[in-house]
Structure formats: C-alpha cells, structure tokens
Amino acid sequence: AMLRTSLRQVSVALKEGRVTPTELCQRCLALIKSTKFLNAYITVAEETALKQAEESEERYKRGQPLGILDGIPIAVKDNFNTAGIETTCASNMLKGYISPYNATVVQKLLDQGAVLLGKTNLDEFAMGSGSTDGVFGPVRNPWSYSRQYREKSVPKSHSEDKDFNWVITGGSSGGSAAAVSSFTCFAALGSDTGGSTRNPAAHCGVVGLKPTYGLISRHGLIPLVNSMDVPGILTRCVDDAAVLLGSLAGHDPKDSTTVQDNFKPFELPNLTDVSKLSIGIPKEYHTPGLSSEILALWSKAADLFKNAGAKVVEVSLPHTRYSIVCYHVLCTAEVASNMARFDGLEYGHRSDMKESTESMYAATRREGFNDVVRGRILSGNYFLLKENYEKYFVKAQKVRRLIANDFVKVFRSGVDILLTPTTLSDAAPYMEFIQEDNRTRSAQDDILTQAANMAGLPAINVPSALSERGLPVGLQFIGRSFQEKQLLTVAKWFEKQVQFPMIQLEEVKRHDNDVFQHQKSASFS
Amino acid sequence: QKVSVEVLDHLEHLALVDFRDSEGVERLQKAIQFADQLHEVNTDGVEPMVSVLEDRCLYLREDDVTEGNCTKELLENAREKVEEYFVAPPGNIPLPKLEERDIFLQGS
To answer: Residue ranges per domain, chain B?
Structure first.
C-alpha cells in the first residue's frame, strides 16, 4: 500500500525509515513497466532516477534530508525541458531533442531531492483535450481498468482484455494525470493553457491545480500561449498540491512574467467553519452539453456548502460563452508566433531538403508538425494578417478584458470562491472521442476551464464522485488572483466532505504486496 | 465568404506550413467561421488586454552578464554545423510561385 499513499504520508515514511528512497523508486519503476499499456510515459529515466534515489538515501542516512520532497518519485510532462533527458512535446519536431537545461520548475524539484522518474505523454505540443494526438499514441485512462468501471460495463469484460472500450484521460496533460492516478508517482507536473491540467485531473480522479498566472515560472516550459500558459500541479490530494505549490512558486529572474511578490509556502488549515465563506455559482456554466449527472453533482455540492453554513449565491459571468472563441483566436495567434522557432536549424528535426533556406524550413515543418499544430499555425497567421488584425486579434484582446472584468466584478461583490463543474461529462471512450476532430473537441471540452486562463485566475479540480459508468467526475473551484491559500483551504474542506473513493486497480494490488499493511483507508484525506 | 486561393497561398508562405489537402483548407474555413462569433460582442470603448499582469511593472534586472559561454551546448542539438556556425542552405531564394508548385493548392 506504500504506493497508494499520499505524498506527505510517504515522506513521513521515508523520514521514519519505514521505506528507503531506492525501494520506493524501484517499486514505482516496476509499476510503470507493468502499466505500460496506459502509455502514460514517453521516456522513463530509469538510471538517473535510481541515482537520484541513492543520493537521497545517503541524505536520509545522514539525517539530512533536503525537505519534504526528498526521495519522492515525480513525473514531468514532456513539454518541460529536462537536461540530459529527451524532451519531445510528443512531436516529430523534437524527437531526439536533448535539452541542455532544466526548466526552472524541474530544477526546483531536483534541488529539493525529488526523484524524476520520467516524462509523460501529452497531445502534440499540448494542443488538444484528449491526450490522443501525440506521435507516441494516446494515453489510456487508468480508470478504464478499474473494478469500478468494469463492474458497470455491459457486457462484462474479461479482466485481461486490455483493449476493452478504454476511455481517454482528457488533456493535454493526460500522461501526468494517468501517472498520478495509477500510483506510479506521487505528483506530476502538467501545463494549463485552456484547462490542460484540470481536464485530465477530472477524468482521472486526481487533484489538478492551475496556479495564478505569474506565480510559477514558465522558464523551460515550451510555450503555447505566453499570456496564458502556467505549469500545472497534479496530485492525489489537496494537501499534496499545497506542498508542490510551496516548492515551485515564487519569482524567477529568468521569467520576467513572474511577479516579484514574496511568496510564503503554507500549510493548509483544517477548516471547520465555512459560515464566513461566500461561494458563487456562475449561472452561465450551466451550459448546453453539461451532463445531467454533473449538473446534479454540482447542485449537491452547492447544497453541501449551504448546509454547512456558507453563503451560496448565484452569480453571472455574462461573457463566458465567448471565452472559447476568444481563446481560439488568441491561442492560434500566439501559437503561430511561438511555433516559428521550429525551423530545423538550431535543434529538433531538420529536413533533408537543401534547395533554399525557406524550402528547408517549410519541409522541416511539414515533416515535423501534425495536422492539429499546422492547422493552428495557419489559422493564427490568418487572424494576424494586416486586413484581419483589428477584426480578430485586437477584437479578441478586447473581449478578453470583458471576460476578465466579469470575474473582477463578481469577486468585488463579496464572493470568495466560485464553484463550477470541470468537464461536461465523464471520460469518453477513445473510439467515440476520435469521431470528432481536435478543434471541435477542444472547443467543447475547454468550455468550463478556459475562462480562468483568460483571466489568469487560480483554479483547482477536486475529484468529487463516480459517475454511473464508474468513472471519476470532478468539480472546479476558481479563486482570486494569488489567493491560492484560500482556494486550497476550501478545496481541502470539500475534498474531506466528499470522500472520493480510491481506484481499485488489479495491477497495483499485485505490486503492492508489502509488509506495510496498515493503509486500508478508502481515501487520502 | 470562402478564403481565396491567393490568401491561402500567402498564408502558406507566411507560416512556412502547408495546408496539405482540402481538409486543411476546410479546417481554416471552420476556424474563421468560429471566430466570427466574436463580432457579436460589443467592445466599444474597451481597451485590448495584452496581459493579465498589466497593472504591474515588468521585472527588469541589472545589465550584468550572469551566464553564457555555452556555445558547445547550444551547437550540440544542431544537425548541420561548421565550427561555431549553424549551417543553412542558400538564402534569398524565394519559394516557388503557386503556378510552379506541384501541390494541392494548384488544383483549387
């Protein structure tokens, strides 16, 4: 059961010597091997991980661990630069690319002794909401193999049939979400531009935190939309997310978009009295396409707060429905710019075409990018044409301000936290998901998460219940800028109330037969 | 309003990425249609928002050299190099005109 504990619990176990960093690392690596069918990892850095674990063990032996993260196995989405370890962004453009430096967030984790197990799978260049469009294939949601899902399936499946109607993880940080959900690591880094951390968190039943824009450094995170990207945190419980946040947040001289405010890591209090809280329920989030199950869950959650004494009010964010259109224009425009760096000259794939510089660039990009990426680049360039610039790009920037102002007004009216669904429904089966193209899917799936990126606000997915199909459904809390402590405190309270069940995976049970039998708890809180 | 072949060709030149097939062009058409919804919003008197951090001063540091001397690392990932240069094919040669290209757009 050691692998199924929370990060904080296993950290205590390391400190008390009940398990060693190398044992922990080996167990995780073994589990990664036996859950290979999930395709959550693109690269497993076995040698370096074991080395890091050994060094951690030395520190524990000397009684000098670096902190709570020392020896903790973690995974990182493959769009973060990692020195000496391949960084691909799940694209042919960067296959074989070995970065000369670590992203700031990766460096911070390593400096605190964390053990980097590997790089996780994603949609190519983080464009997508399914983690299905990368060159290494789609990621499978671990819940596809859970007893909870299989029990509800008709016809009853053979437990050995790995291809049985498996469901997607959501995206684009699907690999990271799957890795945390299947217990192969205790925390993972994702990225969030339109919901890419919260969406897979909801589908995989894990906590997904999108911090305030400017709180965590983007240095080394291969950029998609510079004005919206943030590193995301995926963990099994809210307390663990607070730990990660504490080690990652803060000004970085290498990222001029990080704020200079002094950030103080915090421990979350155990909130007992919610009577001073005002929870806002934005009515526009009751959108067509929202499943009746999730609507009911959302309602139940609102009642939970009400019955506990909190003030629960309906609020309005009138420009919500334009958020996705606005995002579409701003995202493609920024992508058109950001993807211009991939020309084959300095790094990454290079075509054999030698006729001219331009033809080499064009051929390299044709060979290196998938349809989704190319489509966004072309759309972005269209919106940036001189004749379209005001009509589309500047217009979208104006609409962005309206969306951001909606939130300002609501928070100014006394609301502390907003409560919304995270996704429209539980995870779709892969065969169903791929019937629609990437852009349509993204437009549908990002609808509830995107506005928080538009406004730069912190938001978190908390796993809340299982759907009728036995799959996780999460709810989202959105907070005020830089008020992560309040956001996480409320999220932690809610997590405790809902007691989300632990996934029952046969693979993990087989690996976890160890002496430490004490954990029979059904959840992490 | 379909996008003209001239504009499509122009986009391919700007983006250095090709539409590849009719699906690619359809994708753009749909993207434009989708984006047109923006015009339903009244933005009179609204300033464009470039960054959510617009109320803060951008961080500036002292103009001191704190890192560098990493030529070797930077060259390592390049496929074609000579001494300390990245090597590119000859420049100043424009891409072939639409009529000369044996690609999809020719047929539209």
So the answer is: 1-40
The pTM (predicted TM-score) of the whole model is: 0.94
Peptide bond into A65 cis (omega under 30): no
Q: Please say if the pLDDT value at position A439 is more than 90.
A: no
Q: What span, in angstroms and rounded, lies between the C-alpha atoms of A188 and A117?
A: 10
Cβ within 8 Å of A, B 41-60: 41, 43, 46-53, 56, 58-60
A-chain residues near B31 (CB < 8 A):
328, 332, 375, 379, 382, 439
Q: Does B80 touch chain A (CB under 8 A)?
A: yes
Query: Which residues of chain B from 4 to 23 reach within 8 Å of chain A, CB to CB?
Result: 7, 10-12, 14-20, 23
CB-nearest partner of A100 from B10, B12, B76: B76
Chain B residue with minimal CA distance to A100?
B73
Q: Which residues, including other chains, have CB under 8 Å from residue A320's CB and lie 6 or more apart? A: A282, A284, A285, A287, A403, A406, A451
* Per-residue pLDDT tens digits of chain B, which is 108 residues long: 789 999 999 999 999 998 888 888 999 999 999 999 999 999 999 999 999 999 998 888 889 998 889 999 999 999 999 999 999 999 888 888 777 665 555 544
The interface pTM score, or ipTM, of the predicted complex is 0.92
| 3-state DSSP assignment of residue A268 | coil
Instruction: Please name each of the domains of chain A with its CATH number.
Output: 2-153+165-273+455-505 (3.90.1300.10)
